[in-house]
Amino acid sequence: MAPPKNAERIKAATTATTTSPTSTKHEASSITTTIAPKITNNVAPSQDPDPLDLDPLVPPPLSWGIDEILAAARLNLSRLDPYFAFYILSEPRTPPAVLVDIRPFHQRQEEGEILGALIIERNVLEWRFDPRSATRLDIANRYDLRVIIFCSEGYTSSLAARSLQELGLWNATDIVGGYKAWKAAGLGRIPEHAQ
């Protein structure tokens, strides 16, 4: 009997649904992820599948789409709406909080900036906030630092905040809706103590 083709294996994969409440709207959101079988194509997990057997138009086994990756990242975040982020940044706190703009230069030029936010472009974020990094910022000397990240609309910032959590910065999070939501809320510069 010939081993099943890649498309048949993917169809045979099981589907699991996970429900988690969001921190900002207290509503349940549902994500669905595909769980591939442990042994596919009669090949043990320790063996690589034959590249000639893979269909380049079908997602490889164990791969996730960006929607699943984003949903999984957000399960670990206590995301903030712009008003609550502003409130957290308005008063001196322990642990300290810092607002970080990860948008590229052209987006900041086109959309505007939040005065007082640290500008750390996405490609160097982990190196600047990892307390173990030789190139970290002076403020990044503790793992409980509350890093509040924003991008243009709140998608890339979720992935970035989760990446900081994986470095051990468990209070890292992002702003729902990003810069555009902050601007629509009419919020201005952040206080000097939070800069």
Automatic annotation (TrEMBL):
Biased composition (Basic and acidic residues): 1-11
Transmembrane stretches, start-end: none
PROSITE patterns documented for this protein: RHODANESE_3
Low complexity: bias regions: 12-23
Pfam families: Rhodanese (PF00581)
InterPro entries to which the protein is assigned, alphabetical: Rhodanese-like_dom, Rhodanese-like_dom_sf
Listed SUPFAM superfamilies: Rhodanese/Cell cycle control phosphatase
UniProt cross-references to SMART domains, sorted A to Z: RHOD
Disordered: region residues: 1-33
Segments forming domain Rhodanese: 93-191
Protein name per its UniProtKB record: Rhodanese domain-containing protein
Organism from which the protein derives: Oidiodendron maius (strain Zn)
UniProt lineage: Eukaryota, Fungi, Dikarya, Ascomycota, Pezizomycotina
